[in-house]
Amino acid sequence: MTAYEEELSRILDLLGRVGDRCSQRTHHNEGKFYAAGFAFKLSGHAISALTLLRDKSALTADGRRFLDRTSVCVLARAGWECFLLFHHIFIAPGGDEDERQIRYLRWSIESLRKRQHFETLLPGQAEQLRDERRGIEDAEAEIRGNAAFSKRCQKQQDQFLDERGRWRPGWAQMATNAGIAKLYARDHYSYLCDHAHTGPFSVELLKGTMTDEDEAQLRNTVAMTLAVAVANVVSGLTELFPEARRLTADDSRLIDRWVQAGRTVSV
Q: What is the average pLDDT across 18-24?
């Protein structure tokens, strides 16, 4: 493992321990339950990316192994977006619990709304969609009755509830709002998106075998990007769950260093 991969592994271990403590304190708070869930989703993406970097890919167990650059980038992008959405919903509102609640509620109905347009092919699906529609309507009513929602002008309220997903800023803007430097917020993210969307870079780079220098650069970029994401989520969880903080001085310094690295592009 490279030095950055080793640090990412350490931060992921911290995320797992903090996430476990947080999940034990979410039984009576659905929003915080999902906040801890974001941590475990990010952990899965980052661990899978590390596994591919370390063990590489092969068609069969004993086949020739190769580093699949695009799959690693797709995992890194998914992990990065997990951090950004976690921050936007649970951290960016600061101490405004009303704002945090409506962002969580709006996020919680996003997938259910999309499923309303699915084909009903199996027994029970139509009934399930009707039940989910009632859940969507209940969430929308709770949003409309929330004090943070009432502070918005009519146009902002319409946008927040709009089904076209205008309730939040774009990914790059959310990163900027989280204090992330342009290198990660826009440059690295754009590169990761090119691989996820089968852009020219993602195809062009497959024409030849990766050099040792190319592989080292990829490994460092992915590990650093995920380290920034994971460190920020650990920091956010300790803000949401102060009782679960319990970090050693060395752990705190590690997290602070990578949070700061995302803001200043230095490690």
A: 81
